[in-house]
Every structure is written in structure tokens, then in C-alpha cells.
Design a protein that fits this description.
The structure is a single chain. This protein folds into two domains: 1-74, no CATH class; 82-279, no CATH class. The longest helix is centred in the middle third of the chain and has 34 residues, at 125-158. It is globular. Helix 5 runs parallel beside helix 10, helix 6 (125-158) packs antiparallel against helix 10 and helix 9 (191-205) packs parallel to helix 12. Strands 1-4 form a two-stranded antiparallel sheet. It has a two-stranded antiparallel sheet with strand order 2-3. By secondary structure, it is mainly alpha-helical. The chain has helices at 2-10, 13-43, 50-70, 76-79, 86-112, 125-158, 161-175, 181-187, 191-205, 219-237, 249-252, 262-279, and strands spanning 116-118, 208-210, 213-216, 241-243.
Length: 281
């Protein structure tokens, strides 16, 4: 076993990343595959949640072993970004509010300019809001732990800050296209938006918790990610707005996705600029 850990430590980043992910999938597969088949059959493939959750659970449980034996980390969770105490939660909340406010502002702007009309369906709002909060919280924490926690650390061991930044953002965007070819062709216009979002989240990860401390954490990216996902879920699933088509789809977002539209990219660019400047102070 010691020989395997020694080989792991001396391997380049792509090998370490691949070995760890393959190990997680291999350990989780006996439980995740039956769950996936059950979910797929039960929902006709429309909702597959618990199988990916099983993978995330195994990934989280394996991280302390990876940190202590793979990199000799005394505090793996602190290295991955869970550090700062009360400031962590304060920064997470501020970033979450930023994500919520930015998304509501964008769709509100659409309505004010006549690019969309409000179409709020009042029934089931409490359930919808609860689902949005839960999904935003879990997706924000899980994806940020994976990309801006573990993967960013692994890449940073072998590459410089700039190359690590672009590799992380690029892998983040590509990971969202691990789906059937038909779905890839339908969603390819959002690739640039996903890449910009990946850059933004890395700059958020590198932003200090306060102006008086250089300490960074996952609070900023996890909060921002949660706010964006939760609010978009409420607007999209709850059918809060309906695009009128008065302007081309590439302005408001192809497929009603703000990441695939000029307006959404401009707003995301403003957020990216904020975190870029904060991370470079």
C-alpha cells in the first residue's frame, strides 16, 4: 500500500486526478449502478439524482485519505477551503446574495425592456423554493469542492497559477458536456458562458475572506454558485418569465439559458471583474 501511495505522490497531476476519480467510481459503482437503473426506470430518465449523490458521498469520504496519505496534509479540509470559522459563513451568504441578486436583476431587466413578460405560477411556490434552496446548496458545495477545492489543488501542485486557472475553468466547462451527443449539440452555445463562470469561480476561490486577511476559502465560490443555481431554478422551473422573442435569442440566451446570451455574459463579466480585482489585491 505504501508503494501505491508513493507512486501516487510522484505522478504528474493528470495521472493523480485520473487515478483518484477512477478509484471513486470503482468503489461507488456497486451501489450507484443499481440506484441509477431504478431511478431511470421510475422517472423515464427525467430525474436521476441519487446515483450521482452516491458518487459525491464516496468522493467526500475519500478526500481525507487522499489528503493525509497522498499529500501528507495535516488538515485536508482546511486545504480544500473549509477554513475561516464565522467569516466563512458570512462570505458564503454575501456571495449567495450576489448570485441571487444578479440573476433576478437580469430577468427583471428582460421584463423592463420588453424582452420577457412575467408569468408567475403562484401554486406550489413554497415547495419550489425549498427544492431550489436544496439544489443550490448541494450543487454549489459539491461542484466547488470538486473543482475549486480538490482539482484546483491538484493542478496547482504541478502548474503555475495562470495555467491552473485556465485548465480548471476549461475542465469545468467540458464536464458539463458529459452527456449524449444530442444534448451536447443543443447546449453547445453556453460553452463560453461556462468557461467564463469557471474563471469567475477560480478568482472567487482566490479572493481573501476579508481585506485584513490573506486567507482564502471555498466560501465565495460556493455561495455564488449556490445563489446562481437556486435562483435560475426558481425562474426556469417555476416559469416566472416568458421570453417574448422581440430580440434575437443570442441576446437573451439560446434555449432561455443566460449563459448562452450576450446580456448574461455581460452581467457575468461584471461579477468576474469584481472577483478578479479582489483576488489580485
Amino acid at each position: 500500500m505504501k508503494i501505491l501511495w508513493r507512486y501516487f505522490r510522484s505522478s504528474p497531476a493528470p495521472v493523480r486526478v485520473g487515478v483518484f476519480l477512477i478509484s471513486v467510481v470503482a468503489i461507488a459503482a456497486p451501489l450507484a449502478l443499481p440506484i441509477y437503473q431504478w431511478e431511470y426506470a421510475r422517472t423515464a430518465g427525467k430525474s436521476v439524482v441519487w446515483a450521482p449523490a452516491t458518487l459525491v458521498l464516496v468522493f467526500v469520504l475519500a478526500l481525507p485519505l487522499w489528503g493525509r496519505y497522498g499529500h501528507y496534509l495535516q488538515s485536508p479540509w482546511a486545504t480544500l477551503g473549509f477554513v475561516g470559522g464565522a467569516r466563512w459563513f458570512r462570505c458564503w451568504l454575501l456571495a449567495c446574495l450576489l448570485g441571487v441578486g444578479a440573476t433576478l436583476f437580469l430577468f427583471g431587466l428582460y421584463v423592463c425592456l420588453g424582452w420577457a413578460v412575467p408569468a408567475i405560477a403562484p401554486s406550489g411556490f413554497v415547495i419550489l423554493l425549498g427544492e431550489a434552496v436544496l439544489i443550490g446548496l448541494l450543487v454549489g458545495l459539491a461542484e466547488e469542492l470538486l473543482f475549486r477545492g480538490w482539482l484546483l489543488f491538484e493542478l496547482g501542485q504541478d502548474y503555475g497559477p495562470r495555467l491552473t486557472l485556465w485548465l480548471n475553468a476549461l475542465l469545468f466547462a467540458i464536464a458539463h458536456y458529459l452527456r449524449p451527443l444530442e444534448a451536447i449539440l443543443e447546449t453547445w452555445p453556453q460553452f463560453l458562458g461556462l468557461l467564463l463562470l469557471g474563471l469567475t469561480l477560480v478568482w472567487a476561490r482566490r479572493s481573501p475572506l476579508s481585506r485584513h486577511s490573506p486567507q482564502t476559502s471555498l466560501a465565495w465560490p460556493a455561495g455564488l454558485h449556490a445563489g446562481l443555481v437556486a435562483t435560475y431554478y426558481v425562474v426556469e422551473v417555476g416559469n416566472w418569465v416568458e421570453i417574448t422573442g422581440r430580440v434575437p435569442a443570442w441576446v437573451t440566451g439560446i434555449g432561455n439559458n443566460p449563459l448562452a446570451g450576450v446580456a448574461g455574459l455581460i452581467l457575468l463579466g461584471a461579477i468576474a471583474t469584481f472577483f478578479y480585482r479582489r483576488s489580485h489585491t
